[in-house]
Write a structure and sequence with these properties.
The structure is a homodimer. In chain A, about 70% of the residues lie in helices and about 5% in strands. Chain A contains seven helices and three strands; from the N terminus they run ααβααββααα. The two termini of chain A are about 30 Å apart. At the A-B interface, helix 1, helix 5, helix 6 and helix 7 of A face helix 1, helix 5, helix 6 and helix 7 of B. Chain A binds a DNA duplex through helix 4.
DNA sequence: TCAAACTTTCAATTTATTTTGAAAATCCGA
DNA sequence: TCGGATTTTCAAAATAAATTGAAAGTTTGA
């Protein structure tokens, strides 16, 4: 397979993967493009390679920066901004886990906490099942949250070692 | 908080969580509704509770059945179909992991395999970075895939015990 | 076999999301 | 401070995804 062909295929693939995970296609494609680029790229280069508008390119690069997946690379003597992606996929994955945990799991736990304070006077079968389910969900999500939290802090502590054994 | 209010809040919350994970809002809401219902529900009841059309209800129930999260519950003497959801959230989570792994990770690994067979004659910096990155990604994804695979098979083997220790 | 009960399909519509592109804002050297 | 280079914003347009609802299909009891 030729380089250009493979590159396109990868950008495509990464893009549609993103789509399945609630990440917009273009953002994932910009990420893919930066991942495989040995040098940092300007907005123009991104526009050119992906055939997207300036506004779109700008927006998605900004968002990738918010996610902590991409950084600005200011070159001396250049007024333009260049961008590069964290190349260590493991680190990038941890970064994504960390962000999603913060953005989604934490609020959900919060909501579950509120909801659980259900009127105890209501003892219908429905209300009982509901309360039970809330406890159950909170428990499982809480545990998942705990693992992800540990995992995302795990760059150099015991859990990493433990996980690595599982991964061997 | 009153039961009806809490119920609504939960259905809402579960729905918007789904949205962030590439699952359509209604499907997640139907799932939420069935999760907290102590009895199985008919299509009519689902339409009524969520204020959605018959077609929509049918489609999303079908999809939940495909995901292995919901089953038909045929009541003797009733011609209608009723539906109930797996109530053990841990099992449901495993089911989701299993499905997504099959639907997304496996195809991605496949694509990466193809892409890696890159024309070795091309020794530009770009091509080298690309090949390196493909190897890196395949490695991380392969490991994640391995963990998820083990996890989803883990109902009663060693990994479950090991994970449980991490979770304590 | 018929017909009512029920489920599924799918083209048309509605709703939500993404993208564009040009104007406004910002930045920076002289 | 000015003016060109660059980035950011955002209303409008384009695209994508979800939803409806009625027609078609299926199942079942008599």
């Amino acid at each position: 397979m030729k380089h250009e062909e493979a590159k396109l295929k990868f950008i495509q693939g990464w893009g549609s993967l993103g789509t399945n995970w609630g990440i917009n296609r273009t953002m994932a494609q910009v990420h893919a493009l930066l991942l495989i680029s040995p040098t940092s790229l300007s907005t123009e280069q991104i526009m050119e390679e992906l055939q997207i508008s300036r506004g779109n390119a700008n927006m998605n690069v900004r968002e990738l920066i918010n996610w902590g997946l991409v950084r600005k690379d200011l070159k001396p003597g250049e007024r333009k901004e260049f961008f590069y992606a964290e190349k260590d996929i493991w680190k990038a994955a941890m970064q994504i886990i960390k962000e999603r945990r913060k953005r989604e799991l934490e609020p959900l736990m919060q909501v579950l906490g509120e909801i659980k304070s259900l009127d105890k006077a209501d003892d219908s079968a429905e209300a009982k099942e509901f309360t039970k389910m809330m406890g159950n969900i909170e428990d499982v999500i809480g545990k998942a949250d705990g693992v992800l939290d540990k995992l995302s802090r795990a760059q150099d502590n015991w859990l990493m070692g433990t996980m690595m054994k599982l991964l061997k």
